[in-house]
Specification:
There is one protein chain. This protein is α/β, with parallel strands linked by helices. 29% of the residues lie in helices and 21% in strands. The chain is built from eight helices and eleven strands. The strands form three sheets. A six-stranded parallel beta sheet has the order 5-4-1-9-10-11, sandwiched between helices. A three-stranded antiparallel beta sheet has the order 7-6-8. A two-stranded antiparallel sheet has the order 2-3. Strand 2 and strand 3 form a beta hairpin. Helix 5 runs parallel beside helix 8.
């Protein structure tokens, strides 16, 4: 049995692949107010704007490439049972070689019915208004918007409770419930925090802080764990 290594990742790990999020620019995401494009209210007000926004994000992700942080985490699978819990909607962990990835906030390459959130389909091109699921519901991005439930959080908590090592990379720990996962780490488990600006978390004896960008920090982590 390999030791269980659970990793929580946020926008900071994909930033070095050229993908930005709204937190980089004070509530704006690629020039849009985040609530216009990432809330049920925004969808109700202007669904065409929302579709166009995520169609553009899908193109961004298609052109982005995994960086050394993504591939480094995959390398840890040689020695550990690595479980990635990511707040990111891109597929860079998968393309970087990680085999077990849980997306808390949805996936840009999936879409779902507005009337039945269990009807989920792959999508690599644009979603258009008038594209319907088999139940007749309009198809929308399979993204968890502000104000919506996070259906994968219970599975993520279960992973964290089983961790032998817990790693946090590139997240501000400001978005809940994802940020609350740190509270479920067993007290004896070492916690590695990698970020070019370490988020405000209480110091613990078994905490190792690596205040560096994700690519450099993961390389340092590999030196410690492999």
């Amino acid at each position: 049995m390999k030791p269980r290594l659970v990793v929580l990742t946020g926008a900071g790990i994909s930033a070095e692949s050229g993908l930005r999020t709204y937190r980089d620019t004070n509530g704006l995401w690629e020039g849009y107010d985040v609530y216009e494009v990432a809330s049920p209210q925004g969808w109700a007000k202007d669904p065409v704007l929302v579709q166009d926004f995520y169609n553009a994000r899908r193109k961004d992700v298609k052109s982005a490439q995994p960086n050394a942080a993504h591939t480094g985490l995959a390398k840890l699978e040689e020695k550990y049972d690595v479980r990635i819990v990511t707040q990111n909607i891109d597929d860079l962990h998968e393309r970087g070689g990680s085999s077990q990835v849980l997306h808390l906030h949805g996936e840009i390459f999936k879409m779902r019915s507005v009337t039945d959130e269990t009807l989920i389909y792959d999508i690599y091109e644009d979603i258009k208004m008038g594209d319907l699921a088999e139940d007749g519901g309009q198809l929308r991005p399979h993204i968890v918007w502000f104000g919506e439930a996070v259906p994968m959080i219970e599975q993520a908590v279960a992973e964290v409770l089983e961790a032998d090592i817990f790693v946090i990379i590139g997240t501000s720990l400001q978005v809940y419930p994802a940020a609350s996962l740190l509270e479920y780490v067993p007290s004896q488990v070492p916690v590695y925090i990698i970020d070019q600006k370490i988020p405000p978390v209480a110091q613990q004896p078994n905490q190792i802080r690596i205040e560096k960008p994700a690519t450099v920090g993961v390389e340092e982590l590999l030196g410690m764990l492999l």
